[in-house]
Design goal:
By secondary structure, this protein is an alpha/beta fold. The chain has two domains: 109 residues, Aspartate Aminotransferase, domain 1 (Alpha-Beta Complex), CATH 3.90.1150; 223 residues, Aspartate Aminotransferase, domain 2 (3-Layer(aba) Sandwich). The protein is built from 15 helices and eleven strands. Strands 2-8-7-6-5-3-4 form a seven-stranded mixed β-sheet, sandwiched between helices. A two-stranded parallel sheet has the order 1-10. A two-stranded antiparallel sheet has the order 9-11. It is globular.
């Protein structure tokens, strides 16, 4: 049986190999070398430039003076609030450090040397790299023509392996493409025996399309589905590290054995405050992001620059040559874009910032593009 001690022991072995917890390895600002402009525009980590909502800032200020205490007695109520906001009960969620912790735990629990992690390439690398660090099998499937996940290939791979963990990031990072509600419904109905579907919904709140929906209802129905959520993106709390997984109570019980299941009281209060104004925050922030995203894509279209139709707070732009040229040249001009995502070597991932950020991006991008 997996235990928290065993989990961290295995993670320690991975650290010795220099590849512990991939999120640290993906730290974008550390990858930008040389002297940096004081007014650097950071468009490399899919952060929300709006930051935490005002209500969350007020809640954090109020609790800071008491943060010398552990506040363990409060977390039952905090997690109940988080669960209720998604139509769940506390037994159906486990909290984590962002969504990264719960993704890692799901991989550790539901994959093995003979039970693979099945994902697409490229996608968020965290689950893939954790599985590899643990010596667990990884099966990478190719994207379809329009950069969407080949769900048939993923289910087929799980069937041939007699089980596994299918990881879907929806919308996908880095492509910003989506898997539709009908497609996810098909996956759930056709999950092979001993197979669990892990849906990473870090960016779900930025989607406009009516044919894309959350997978939370499958949790409510008791299916073999885990949904990972984070407060890092639309809520603007990336540095506060708050997230959770939603699943059936028996799955959550297994994951809870591996999880610290305690987050900073400052972060927890910020999340609870945001949930108290959830509808307003989601509506206004999505509208702001969508407006800026549309302006960027219209600008690209006017210049015949190709891109993948975006559904998240970032866009993948086809620069027509190896994107590493842009990744290395743009920071010196005051803009930091995303890291490489092979095999999409000609694609540049760009986070959506403020209107002023995107004005600077267009200036710098065009300068490098036309060089």
């Amino acid at each position: 049986m997996s235990t928290r001690r065993g989990f961290f022991a295995q993670m320690g072995a991975a650290a010795a190999a220099g590849r512990l917890l991939p999120e640290a390895a993906y730290a974008q600002r550390a990858a930008v070398r040389g002297a940096l402009a004081q007014d650097m525009v950071w468009l490399n980590a899919n952060e929300n430039p709006a930051g935490p909502p005002d209500c969350s800032l007020d809640a954090m200020r109020a609790v800071m003076a008491n943060s010398g205490r552990y506040h363990y007695n409060e977390f039952g109520g905090i997690y109940a609030t988080m669960a209720k906001a998604e139509g769940l009960v506390p037994e159906q969620i486990v909290a984590g450090c962002g969504s990264s912790e719960v993704l890692h735990i799901a991989v550790e629990l539901f994959t093995s040397p003979t039970r693979p992690l099945i994902t697409v390439e490229p996608a968020y690398e965290g689950p893939r790299d954790v599985a590899r660090n643990l010596g667990h099998q990884v099966i990478l499937t190719k994207l379809r023509e329009h950069y969407t996940a080949d769900i048939g290939a993923m289910v087929d791979a799980a069937d041939k392996a007699h089980g596994g963990l299918i990881y879907l990031c929806n919308p996908n990072n880095p492509t910003s493409a989506v898997t539709t509600a009908d497609e996810i419904d098909w996956v759930v109905k056709n999950l092979p025996a001993n197979t669990t579907l892990l849906v990473d919904e870090a960016y779900i709140h930025f989607v406009e399309r009516p044919d894309v929906k959350s997978a939370i209802p499958y949790v409510q129905q008791g299916k073999n589905v885990i949904v990972a959520r984070t407060f890092s993106k639309i809520y603007g709390m990336a540095g506060l590290r708050v997230g959770f997984a939603a699943a059936r109570p028996d799955i959550i019980e297994q994951m809870s054995r591996m999880s610290l299941n305690v987050i900073s009281i400052v972060s927890a209060r910020a999340a609870v405050a945001a949930l108290g104004d959830k509808d307003n925050i989601l509506r206004t922030r999505k509208a702001t992001l969508v407006k800026t995203r549309r302006e960027l894509t219209a600008w690209l279209q006017e210049r015949s620059v190709k891109f993948i139709d975006p559904n998240a707070n970032f866009v993948m732009i086809d620069v027509g040559r190896n994107a590493r040229e842009f990744i290395t040249k743009m920071p010196a001009l005051g803009v930091a874009p995303g890291r490489p995502f092979p095999p999409l070597d000609n694609m540049l991932r760009v986070s959506i910032g403020t209107d002023a950020d995107m004005t600077k991006f267009r200036e710098v991008f065009w300068k490098v593009y036309k060089a």
